[in-house]
Amino acid sequence: MSEELVLHNLNREVKDPLLRKKVTPTWELGCKRTLVTSDWYTALQKPNVELITNRIREVKAHSIVTYDGDEYPVDIIIWSTGFETQKFGIPVYGKNGCSLVEQWSKTMAAYRGVTIPNYPNLFLLLGPNSRLGHSSVIVMLEAQLKYLVEIFVYMNENSVRSVAIKQNAHDKYNQWLQSKLKKTVWNLGGCHSWYQNFQGDVTTIWPDFTWIYRSLLKRFDSENYIIEK
């Protein structure tokens, strides 16, 4: 898929120049999650549809007011505000009472998207930087589950009580991740998306081929973990 092809299809499908301008992204293709649909442009051009792109200033009992002062009467409002991707949904406390919410207050990070320093025996699926915008997430889940099984087998066979990723291994891995992500469209594409945190760092998406991720999780690298029996 290329921007030229997408823009060609847009120009062909949407004849009204004002509407076309409204639906033309100002960022590079792929910076935000790509919408794949065959009837989006058709739906927007129906006589009972009006696309308003001005920011909402106020929601009243029976209307919406935009920042340009226009007011639109409404019967139903459907909120499509996206996802909360930068916080953990439940309170979790690790060693010495540290809170995961506090640890992730500036940026969320995990080792290979699975384990977090100071949180022994806490294992994630589709954790930070292991989700995808360009391939099948099933591949990532399978790799993570295989990795976790390796951990559990190791713990069982060696009478291990807990495992926790070492801070230096975690930090080195995430420095490598961010160095790769800095070169991607998710960082350089000119948009702010749910892939990013408030500082603009991409904390959700895996930046490379899925087979590289699978190779990283092929075995349990116990040397990078604090092992307690």
From TrEMBL:
Gene3D superfamilies in the record: FAD/NAD(P)-binding domain
Transmembrane feature ranges: none
The residues forming the signal peptide are none
Task: Name the family.
Answer: Belongs to the FAD-binding monooxygenase family.
Output this protein's name.
Flavin-containing monooxygenase
